[in-house]
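Long-time lurker, first post. I've been practising inverse folding by hand and with some scripts of my own, and I keep getting stuck on stretches where the structure tokens seem ambiguous. Below is the full token string for one chain I'm working on. Before anyone asks, I'm not after the true native sequence, just a reasonable design that respects the backbone. If someone could post their per-position residues I'd love to compare against what I wrote down in my notebook.
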């Protein structure tokens, strides 16, 4: 795999994460993680919610005066179910917070961190060479910081890839994701002066 394509792939991955949103990706991967490794916990939480709702429904249909013993038993069952659910939800929240930290670290390492590391490791290497004399004095800028004169450096290539993807994102939003209904002409509403003149005519 060429260096130019590797840099472009990393920049594209970084922009893709930005387009989708890290929060959305976190929710998707966390849900998948829970389903694969903690399915029993998720099922237990759902079952607790289901049992609490069923017991509450039965409690509402039970008279506290005529059936006090049954009502008190159902009340205790509801309270215990709510306590168990709160403890389980608290444990799952702590688990998600820990997973969120690890996920954010992994995303940074595979996107921005990888770009920094690649730029540092190949800082003195040319991504590709330009035709001699085509860019004049700009050849010095295109080779910043430490690439050979007449070449394109990793840093400049990263900026170019990012700029192209940003432009592509703007074009996509303008021409593909624009709602056609928002561009449809709307019926003009009569102004106050027009309404007043029509009333005088009547």
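-- Answer (accepted) --
I ran through it position by position. Result:
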């Amino acid at each position: 795999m060429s260096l130019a394509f590797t840099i472009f792939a990393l920049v594209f991955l970084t922009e893709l994460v930005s387009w989708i949103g890290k929060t959305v990706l976190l929710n998707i991967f966390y849900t998948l993680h829970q389903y694969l490794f903690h399915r029993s916990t998720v099922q237990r939480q759902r079952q607790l919610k289901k049992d609490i709702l069923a017991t509450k429904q039965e409690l509402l249909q039970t008279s506290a005066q005529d059936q006090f013993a049954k009502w008190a038993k159902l009340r205790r069952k509801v309270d215990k179910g709510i306590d168990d659910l709160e403890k389980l939800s608290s444990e799952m929240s702590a688990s998600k917070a820990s997973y969120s930290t690890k996920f954010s670290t992994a995303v940074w390492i595979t996107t921005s961190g990888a770009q920094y590391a690649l730029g540092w490791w190949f800082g003195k290497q040319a991504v590709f060479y330009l035709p001699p004399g085509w860019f004049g004095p700009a050849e010095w800028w295109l080779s910043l910081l430490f690439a050979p004169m007449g070449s394109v450096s990793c840093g400049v290539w990263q900026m170019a890839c990012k700029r192209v993807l940003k432009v592509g994102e703007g074009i996509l939003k303008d021409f593909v994701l624009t709602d056609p209904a928002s561009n449809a002409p709307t019926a003009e509403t009569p102004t106050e002066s027009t309404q007043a003149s029509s009333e005088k005519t009547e």
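A couple of notes from the structure itself: The chain has a mean pLDDT of 84. The CA atoms of residues 88 and 192 lie 62 Å apart. Happy to go over any region you disagree with.
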